[in-house]
Amino acid sequence: MEDFPKVFCGWSWEENKLFELALAVVDEQDPHRWEVVAAMVGGTKSAEDVQKHYVILLEDLQFIESGKLDHKLAEFQPSVHVDCTQSVCWTDEDNKCC
Questions:
Q1: Residues 63 and 69 sit within 8 Å (Cβ to Cβ)
Q2: Dihedral angle at the C-alpha atoms of 79, 5, 93, 57, nearest 10 degrees?
Q3: What is the DSSP string of 9-35?
Q4: Is the pLDDT of residue 92 over 80?
Q5: pTM (2 decimals)?
Q6: In angstroms, rounded to a whole number, what is the distance separating the alpha carbons of residues 49 and 43?
Q7: Residues 6+ apart with CB under 8 A from 12
Q8: How many angstroms separate the CA atoms of 4 and 48, rounded?
């Protein structure tokens, strides 16, 4: 995942996955929600960072659900073909981010 774009406000692939997991398990009503989510991301992001990241995620979802996303762009993007007959084993090296 070394080529994972850091256009997500400087967030790595691993941080994004931890963020998604934290959102799934931390109660929205928890008064310390953003502090808990920040801790679950690995401690490199502040509560303010994760809250801002959440707002960006919501804005992205609204844009996608609004129908304004041009799905025709996908036709011009190179696609990756994966041989699903072979198992994939991830190594620590594969999980290192930029």
A1: yes
A2: -100
A3: TT--HHHHHHHHHHHHHS-TT-TTHHH
A4: no
A5: 0.61
A6: 11
A7: 4, 6, 97, 98
A8: 23
